[in-house]
Predict the structure.
Amino acid sequence: MEDRRQGDLIVIRMYSGEDFIPSLLEVCERHAVRAAVVLSSIGQLEDFELGYFVKKGDYHPTRFDEPYELIAVSGIISRENGAYAPHLHACLGGKEKQAVAGHLVRGKVKITNETVLQAFDMDLGRVENPETGLMDLKAA
């Protein structure tokens, strides 16, 4: 993996076999990021898992083994209890041009990935919403 920061922007290049989310968090740690938003993320993932929120504790995960083109990732990386807490959604396309999307649980980079983060100087946290069971974003 390679990364470079200029101002609030961090450009990341990941290589085949790297774990996507842990790699993002490693870069955040290296650059002392308090919070970040994913501006762009393209490339290819394999052995990835997408979730769909059903109810508290049930994200109905689906695993995909084959490589898919990573079309887009959106989300926020915040900190919770001293650790990074990424909330990422992804859209990926298969070889037949079918799209799959959902909460990105995990994934391995296949061939390459190019991600741009925008870091910002704000403390963000999450609080449980009693109505939905979701952990809602909250600026501290």
Q: What stands out?
A: The mean pLDDT is 94. The radius of gyration is 15 Å.
